[in-house]
Structure formats: C-alpha cells, structure tokens
Design brief:
14 strands; 41% helix; alpha/beta; single chain; 351 residues; 12 helices; three-stranded mixed beta sheet; 17% strand; seven-stranded parallel beta sheet
Length: 351
Amino acid sequence: MKKMLVTGSGGLIGSEVVSFFADRGWQVHGVDNNMRQDFFGVGGDTTWNIERLKNTFLNYEHSSIDIRNRLEVLSLINRVQPDAIIHTAAQPSHDLAASRPFDDFDVNAVGTLNLLEALRQYSTTIPFVHMSTNKVYGDAPNHLSLVEKETRWDYVDAEYYNGIPESFTIDQSKHSIFGASKVAADVMVQEYGRYFDMPSCCLRGGCLTGPNHSGVELHGFLSYLIKCNLQEKEYTIFGYKGKQVRDNIHSYDVVRFIEEFLKHPRNGEVYNLGGGRSNSVSILEAFDLISEISGKPMKYKYSDQNRSGDHICYISDLSKMKSHYPNWEITKDLKTTFQEIYNSWVLRASF
C-alpha cells in the first residue's frame, strides 16, 4: 500500500487530498496542529474536519506535530517513510502576517525547508508537492493596463486574456509579509528540485475553495462571503469598488491535478493553479450569484482602503498545466462550487 504524508490535513486542500487518496487505497498520514485556530480564533478551528477524517477513513493516521519543529519533522518522515508528500500547511493571511511576522515566516518558509531537508535525507526520489500562492507575484499584476467594466476589472492587453503565466515577474513589487514568506518557500522547493534532482512542484494557487473550508474574514474569500450571506451578516468590501476579480478553483480539481503530477512528476516545476477565466468572479458578481442560490440579499459595507498588495484582477493562465498534463481539466464550474459551499455551511449550522 502506498503511503502519503499530508501537512495541513485539517484545512481545505489538505482534507481534500486526504479524502481523495484514502478513497483510492493510499495509507494517508496527516499532520495538523490546528494552528489555524491560533491564527483566526474559533472561526478558524479545523477540529471538526480532522475528526471527520479520523471517523471516515480507517487508513488515515493523524499527528499534531508542529512543522516548525525540525527534529519532530525528521523523525516523522523517517517513521512514515512516505511515497509522496503533499505540503498544504501554511499561515495564509496577508493581514495576520503583518502583525505576526515571525510566526508567518517560521510556518511558511522554515516549515517548508524542514520538510524538504527531512525528505532529502530520507530519499531524493519521493515527489514533493507544495501549495504555493499567486501572491508570489506581489502586486505586479496591478501594473498591467486594466479596464473598468460594469461589474469587474479586466485586462486591456489581449496577451493576458487567458490570465497570468508562470513567466510573470515576481520582482520589484509589494508582496505583503505573507507573500514574501511564500516566495521564500516557493523558491526553496524549486531549488531542491533543481539542485538535488528531486521531483517537486509549486502550485501557485488563485482562490482555492470548496465545501470543507473554514472561511474567515482574513482568509477564505468565497467561503466567508457565502457564510455571511447565509447568516445575514455584513460583509466588508475593501477597495476597488468591489470589482476586484479572482479565479476560483474547487479543491477537488486541485487534488486531481496533484494526482496527475504524481503519475508523471517533474523536478522543480511551477504551475499557476486557478479556475481560469471561466471560473473568475468579482465580489459584486459573487454577491449576485450567492443571492440567487440562497434567496437572501447580500448585506455589505464598503471601505475605500484596499488591502495592501491585493490584486485588482487576477486570473490564472492554465496553458502550461494543460500542456504538461493533458488529462487534467476543470470539472467544477462556478455555480456548482457556490452551491456546494452553501450546502456545507447549511449542514454545519444544523449541528
């Protein structure tokens, strides 16, 4: 039986990875110390998700170690002896990183290095998949020429119609402290792949979303927005007239790409992983879509102050992914994704 180590197994992508590969017969070992609760309070608590995995899958084993603890990480990898590592653990918030920069860097950058080096000492043939972020590009996409439309911003230059490619610059831009720590991790994963010939990739996610997300205001755009609509709470738009655009990808489609990568791994690759233009949506457009599903109007207020380093318009160019892995494609459209998230919040509210 193949063995997989998944960090951040209680989170959105981590739990989707666990479910997907456990269903397919892998022995899955999850690592999650619920630091999300420390970061975001009760609303970010992932205990419910970790317990769900434990109760659902007999081939799931859990550890609550802290990936910042180098010796514990070394010991764990030697004990588990994984056939693949999927690294989804992170401090994921722009705003929180500014107030807790040491925690942010130690989790995102140092934690990633601990895992890479522990894996290298065990084996240089085991695939390592790292959930990076489109924030490695900083606010450089904001310097592209944009046009303001009725409900969204969009690119003027036809070169970017399909979105931002992996060749886009990551230099000379404002990243946020979070973005900088993720750049450090991203480049280190690439370097271990290239320098030590280790199969590895960085998945530079757009808005990763799905029904297992514990969305909060500081992280989890769609999940939190839909939660606000369901609970009839006021949502705050931060700048750009609410026309800022994100491309959203369901966690299932993220994991499907991971499956394809593990079949034919490459060394030190990077891929922009999002929903593409067809799954892109502005905040105003998201309000309309969830109101159509729930039957409830969206309550919101507007702040002129945008979040520092925030993207005005970001769409992932999926061309490279599809050329390297032609068996992969987006299977969950935007409305399906909204409906699943809404149903999940309804179910959780009933407990």
